[in-house]
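Why does residue order matter? Because the sequence determines the fold. Keep that principle in mind as you read this record.
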Amino acid sequence: MQKKKIIAVLAAAALYLTPLTSHIRPLASVSVSASAETISDIPQDYLTACDWVWKNRIETERSCEAWSTIYDQIIAGNGTLQYILIWQSYEPITLAQRQKLPQMLEEAINKWNDCLVGYDDWPIDHVNVKVVGYAVLDESCILDRQPDEKVYTQTTTSWLHDDMVSSGMGNSSVPTIQPAEPTDLSRYVHWNNKKWNYNGSYDNRYDMYLHGIKGMINMGGYGYHYGQILSDQSVLGLIDGTTTQHILLHEMGHGFGFPDYYGGEGESDGFPPGGFPGGKGSIMMAGSCSYINTFDKYFARYTWSKLKNEAGRFDLKNVQPAASTAEFTDKITAINIQQNGYSAITFENNGTYRFPVSGYFDSTDKDLSFYEVGDTVSISFTYDKSDMLIKNIDHIQLISYDPIKGTLISKVSVIDTDYYNSWGIDTYLQKGDVLFGDRTADRCAVTELPDSLIGAEAVLTPCDAKSSSKEQAAVTANKDITLYVGLDSRVTNVPSWLGSFTKTSQTVKTSNNVTFLLYSKKVNAGESVKLGANGQSAGCMNYIVLASAAANTSISDIYPEITDVAYSEQYHQIRFTWKPVDGASNYGIAVYLAGKWRIQTQNISASATSYTTPKNLTAGKTYKVAIAARVNGKWDTANAIKNAVTVTIK
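Structure:
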């Protein structure tokens, strides 16, 4: 979140406990221009400043002497950092927040790692972060605990309590006890013991902790090789994206060995004579910069070059990074959504990956649970090769979805692919619905509809395709139907391809005061009809397409009748209750999103008569939800959608 002014208190590790309050410049999106490939490529003014800091601060304070810096941790872990969360608080942490935690930490640490990529044999392009445990005061704070989550409940006296209260870094509500670390698994504790086995495997270790403390000031922090210490509210804010990362980045800087610059120019605890090159200060100097700037980047590189040359410190020849990247265009052949834990997605030519369904994705265009079998997507992402877990999605775009079909229409074959993504199906049309795949209800919704066409199936056409002179698509009937094409009344010349249709007296009207004149045609099951050009590109909308069942076509009316919709404002979730359907083998839930009905689950037991959504849905967001029953091996989706309910998250 960008703010005009941020009050920040930045404190260092146990070596640097003096609190400081000052104004920080506004956050900005910065592209750091440093491009040195070796230490000799660092510009002279930056190199002079780096030399001074190294000699007068790093060597004097010995902050990089121990082989436990984040440089050491990243390389020893083959590009993976393993964290535990120490939760010296009684605030609850939801499953969704815990799933977002490693991604938040990963985003932050890679802002530092990006400074090193491509420089002086630095071997890691992307750092993978895992959270491998939780040390807590109260186990009940871990909401919806999963079977594979490790929780430590032993406590000890808080080593920071008295200092925090006396220094103003915290108030009297700071707990006098804190969760005890499982130190037998701590790399920081055992870094110099090469024979330490971490309860049987180096993979059991944790490299650092993130420590959240109740009562600590929200704009303060501590940091060193062991990890970062922040207030519990800051940690939650970082997870939820409501708190900026500059304090966390500062404390991570201490993990690399970088000092605070509390003193004045050239002083023993200060900054280089002449100031920092570039005039932007440093993220390690409270009040001068809120992002990793050019000096910080060069100094991260400079420090690596210094440490790299220490005999025996790094085994660069045997580094095998766990994080990898993938980029491809492929069709989704399977997707298994798990509301808790991790879901799985399989691509036709690129295998199977895991992902958190309610984790780090902040919008539907990066939420894999939004997609379904048959969708072809262009995607690039970072993943952990050890367990194929997707860590971050850089880009994803829907290329096509196959098939576009409904209940009465078995297939929509798009011919003019310029508008492919704007085609869709609404299997139960009613007032308030949209008729175009590229228009929203606030721009163009149905206001008047013939009674005989309430519940008709609508092929959502792209309104913008009115400017195309090409054939647009072909629709294939799944049953004997009457196919309707509605032509904007402002179109002066009826397209020739409508010659086989009969003009009716019926009309459809929309909220933007457009009247569509309906033309009809009987179409037999299996028969296809091509939809041509609109015939007019200006002063009108594209045509609409509807289908209704022929008089001799029956549709079953087996559907679960929804009897109650209950809302939880505390957890932002909804529970649906319905009447049981005789003979149902299972029930399914579908949600209408982006012009398509999307299956959320279809494995609800036949004995169940209710379904509760995941927690922490977006408050204020409105959904259309349908509940269907599977009877004698068939789903009655038409009547389920006919009886769909509209809900708004509270």
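The two ends are 24 Å apart (CA to CA).
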